[in-house]
Amino acid sequence: MELLTIADVLQLLLVGLSQGCLYSLIAIGLVLVYKATEQVNFAQGEFMMMGAFVGYQFIVLMGLPYWLGVGLTLIVMGAFGYGIDALVVRRLTGQPVFTVFILTLALGIALRAVAGMIWGFGNYTLPAPIPGNLKIGPVVMAWSSILAILLTALISVGLYAFFRFSRHGAAMLALSQNQLAAFYMGIPVKRLTSVIWAMSAVFGACAGLLLAPITLVSTSMGFIGFKAFAGAIVGGFGSIPGAVAGCLLIGVTEPFFDIAFPTMKGIGAYLVMFAVLLIRPQGLLAQIHAKKV
Amino acid sequence: MSDVLTLSNVETMYGRVMAIRGVSLKVTEGSIVTIMGSNGAGKTTILKTISGALDPFKGRIAFERAEIAGLDPDVVARRGIAHSPEGREVFPLLSVRDNLMMGAYTRRDRDEVARDMEKVLGWFPVLRDFLEKSAIYLSGGQQQMVALGRAFMQRPRLMLLDEPSLGLSPRLIQEIFAIICRMNGDEGVTMLLVEQNANVALPVSDFGYVLETGRIVMEGPRDVLLASDDIREFYLGIKGEAARGDRRWKVKKTWR
Ligand SMILES: Nc1ncnc2c1ncn2[C@@H]1O[C@H](COP(=O)(O)OP(=O)(O)O)[C@@H](O)[C@H]1O
Ligand SMILES: [Mg+2]
Question: Entry's InterPro entries (chain B) (predicted)?
Fold first, then answer.
């Protein structure tokens, strides 16, 4: 293995950071739904894939201006997430958690098939939000990578403020801690839960739109959802800052791992997960007050 | 005075098990009504059926003359019924202040909400020291205060209270029941209270029902119930304990 120069290291760090941010966007959606309902949405990666395809539909196939296409994509995906909960998942309330696991696993498979039937099983290009690269000395960053970092930071801060200062955010916290008591307070628990699914689909779509220029749009792009999963588990699964930290850790170590062990490319994320779980089984930032039982 | 709440022949099932077997009762505006019954009699089930957490299998539930059976609990809450549940059910990771403010979630009258918050803290001054602490750190009695205060913050016209005395010391029970009486007397909140502890609940009530295995077996104004030998013996423990089997037999013989 050749020695890396400082510039190489910096370059890899930034690439890893931006990749970690994409994982984070997916993981935030996972954790939001999990905290609110204790359901795990195994189709979260496919939500991201759908976001990329819907964007491809508006921007490439229909030729709409880029940002208009993005706006429409986020609206469509928000409605999609809301509908999945309101029409399907909500009906399973009271069933074992396992039922919802299987349902969302099946949903992911179905979404891949549906996307393939509508758009085909090839690889498609979606333009980057801002084309070109930013050069700082020897380091070169694609603008879409920089955008991924900025957007993740913005969404993290926005969510913090939302839960801390807004009435609906506080109500979402309340319903995630005690659903029945939230009902008794007059909080529209069912509607807010669907809104949480909508938020999680919108964040997934953001990741999809940002990932598309890097990896191309395809029915299998949702598989990076598993890395987001690993990141969320590293972070303790119940905490959004934890999930972001876990995803960043995985994103940043990944490119170095791939260079050091080229034959094991792609499994670095899971090794990091195992390593963290061995040392801290509860994850990096597990909730201090573990749920009883 | 008009009836705020009327239950007619309500039956509630858990799967195929019927927990409530044709219960009829009414709560008059401004009163405190108590349902007494031992553990497992179905008290919690009645309250959950009223507030919409459970749907009745049969029967009608009228709140201020409108049918509310089968509505979602958040809709029932918005109609004006607050439910302070068994086991307090505070939001563990929210601060005491946020817990209380959650009660006011549906309200828009900010000034009134602030005044009601002061009222609650006046009734339970100990909560003032914990306002910014997570509710999980409170003692059982303090959590009960939060649950009661949170229900009051909804400014309900009817409050459902599920065993507010459960697990509390006699002194705390006195304190909490004094506040319940003030919410009723000073603020005009109608109360439907369920209690195993008839000793403390019955004396503050206007009217009482006795529930046994899902059925109302006796009802009457407070003074009539307090004078009844059966109530004195089995719910107030005044004449000493009778054996359980003995008690069932006698209950059936005299009350049905
Ligand atoms: N979730 C449940 N599933 C099945 N049976 C239940 C459930 N909750 C209560 N029950 C049964 O219903 C009856 C009434 O219970 P409950 O209303 O909790 O009584 P109480 O509040 O008077 O102690 C009891 O026999 C209890 O075992
Ligand atoms: Mg009970």
Answer: AAA+_ATPase, ABC_transporter-like_ATP-bd, ABC_transporter-like_CS, BCAA_Transport_ATP-bd_LivF, P-loop_NTPase
Buried (b) or exposed (e) across B75-89, using 16+ Cβ within 10 A? Answer: ebbbbbbbbbbbebb
List ligand 1's pocket residues with C-beta within 6 A: B 14, 17, 19, 37, 39-45
| Confidence tier at A274 by pLDDT (50, 70, 90) | confident
Residue A232 lies in a domain: no
For residues B232 and A122, the model is more confident at A122
B39 Cα–ligand 2 center, Å: 7
ipTM of the complex: 0.91
- Assign residue B20 the CATH number of its domain: 3.40.50.300
Mutate to test the pocket of ligand 1, among B44, B89, B160, B163 (most ligand atoms within 8 A of CB): B44
Mean pLDDT of chain B: 91
A196: three-class secondary structure by DSSP: helix
Residue B57, domain extent? 3-250
- The DSSP symbol for A81 reads H
Q: How far is A79 from A149, CA to CA, in rounded Å?
A: 25
Residue A122: inside a domain, yes or no?
A: yes
Tokens of A199: 């938020």
Locate the chain A residue with the closest alpha carbon to B147. Answer: A181
**Contact B77/A183, CB-based, under 8 Å?**
yes
Question: What are B10-54's pLDDT values in tens digits?
Answer: 999 999 999 999 999 999 999 999 999 999 999 999 999 999 999
A91-101 pLDDT tens trace: 988 788 888 88
Considering only the beta carbons, identify the residue of B78, B93, B101 that sits closest to A177.
Answer: B93
Handedness of CA A205, A208, A212, A214 (dihedral sign): positive
How far, in Å, CA of B90 to CA of B78, rounded? 19
Nearest CA to ligand 1 atom 26: B40
* Residue A290 maps to a domain: no
Residues 6+ apart with CB under 8 A from B148: B84, B124, B161, B164, B176, B179, B180, B183
Please name the residues in contact with A133: beta carbons below 8 A apart, sequence gap of 6 or more: A140, A141, A142, A143
Asked if the structure places residue B256 within a domain, the reply is no
- Does residue B242 have a pLDDT over 70? no
What integer pLDDT is reported at residue A286 of this predicted model? 64
B155 inside domain: yes
Number of domains in chain B: 1
Question: DSSP readout, A1-42?
Answer: -PPPPHHHHHHHHHHHHHHHHHHHHHHHHHHHHHHHHS---T
For residue range A144-185, list pLDDT tens digits in order: 899 999 999 999 999 999 999 999 999 999 999 999 999 999
